[in-house]
Amino acid sequence: MSQSYTFPAAPSTDSIEWPGSPIGAGNTITRTKTRTAIHDKTIDRIPGRRDELVGAAEAHIRARRGRQPVFAHDVIIHGVRVRATTDSSHLHDFWEDNWYSPEEWQTITGMTPPVEPQVTVYAMGQVPDQEEAAYYSRRSNTIVFFNTAYYGQLKSWVLGAVGRVLAEEYGIHSIHGACVEKDGKGVLYIAPTGTGKSTSSYGLVTYPRTRFHSDDWVYVRYTYGTRDGRRIHPLRVSARGGEVRGYRVFRWLEEHGRDGAGIVHGLDLENREVNVALADLDLDAPIQASAFTSEKIFYLRTNLVENFPLSAAEMLRSKMENAPDVTAGYLREIAPLLDDLMEAIRSASGRDAAALGAMEPARLRLALARMIAFDNARAMLDITKMLPAERVFANPMEPAHLATVILLKRDRRDPTVLEHLSLQRFLGRLLIGETPERKREIAYNAYRAVDDESEKAYIVALERETEAREGEGYSVEALAQTFATRSDVPETLAEEFELFRIMHRACRCYDLNTVLTEDSGIEDKKTAVEMTMRVIARVVDTLPQQVRHTLESYRDFVGVGKATRR
């Protein structure tokens, strides 16, 4: 393919953000369009390094005072107060749009937010004595960015830092995933980029009796039943020998919960504090999982329009980041795709179809091409303007009750389409966490506020140990078994996988391979997406156990029979 897109040149060599060609409600181009070259989450290893970086950020603020604006704004993310200070108008703009302010949080949820920030963020541009870089102090919950205005990395690191606080102190599981409710049952997608997470969540919402929950990040609370019929998410347990808190509570309850006296301190489903005698906890009742959304306005890829062309209407009312200009050659090469999208819009009905249909066709084709061309172009999209209010979880503290967890992958070498996952296979898949490009992402989550390289090195050592014992071609179950027997697991991995172990107890878990374009009876990507949605809907409706379907048998599962082969 010839060159697909270009971006307008920066006005100066030190610019980190500038206006792009107009589209939507605004279009900011950022010099950095992905993760910074320097990204260090281990600064606590160097005494004084955090203070040095914060000092550099605060010195820059003082130097700008009175000459250029510096913005400070607090938000509430699942009850955690986060304060961001930045001199980037783009970052400040998207930051305010993305999250609930303390006042909005209190109005919507009825809950009083924390007074002081638990996570602190500095994002400073045009700092001459600093490299383009991102830093994180786990010990102090501090994030420092220099010389980048790309919002995606800022958002992801903040979510990781908030997730650390929630897991360590409250046993709340933070997951890079998307969630939709169907017939009162929540389905959670966990997936690397490029496997269809957004496509699957928006696609399922086209079915009746569904509600959109979240697109990128989900908080999960695991609750126990009490003997008088209530549900409680345990925060800590006070018993003989001391106190256990956070993610460690679940294992303690399994091993010691029936042994004696104690008090479970937790939260009910309305987020009220509850204290329950240990003897009043029904440890024989199933654990349940409840998912909570994080974002007010969703920051998502504009190429969603390729599978859902009507979403272009709201995209074109939204602020964008890094929407490029496209070349004439690219417009010619994707002309068949643009023809299909234009026809889908013409044949649709409703407000969005009418709005798009009123646009001059050449202008609409160009806008669609610009939203598709660059994989990392983003929009700040208000989903409540795309769907009726009753079909969106608008209160961040309203739970979706999870029944199903689907690990998405895209592996064209594997003919398996759908598979029910045992605990060991579920954990093994999450340990490996391969993207379609075979890049490793533990738990499909590059956002986690951890020392990624140390964790990955640990898992490589696990793989070598497993291969030495099992031989080449060992299974992911064998890898998970090796992991379970080790006593030297890094704390960050122990925390993550303990919470996934509880998730498997609470939900039916599946692998879904989004490769139906490999089915010779499917003509195009649109049909492949529609059939994938039928598989997902069938899983959510029936929650099958011990199921496995391949490209040869999945049609029987969804009840459409075999297609005529090409």
Description of the structure:
With 566 residues, this protein is α+β, with helices and mostly antiparallel strands. Helix content is 34%, strand content 25%. The strands form 4 sheets. Strands 4-8-9-7-6-5 form a 6-stranded mixed beta sheet, with helices on both faces. The chain has a 5-stranded mixed beta sheet with strand order 2-3-21-23-20, covered by helices on one side. The radius of gyration is 24 Å and the shape is globular. Among the domains are: 133 residues, 3-Layer(aba) Sandwich (Phosphoenolpyruvate Carboxykinase, domain 1), CATH 3.40.449.10; 68 residues, no CATH class; 159 residues, no CATH class.
In summary, what is this structure?
With 566 residues, this protein is α+β, with helices and mostly antiparallel strands. The strands form four sheets. The protein has a six-stranded mixed beta sheet, with helices on both faces. It has a five-stranded mixed beta sheet with strand order 2-3-21-23-20, covered by helices on one side.
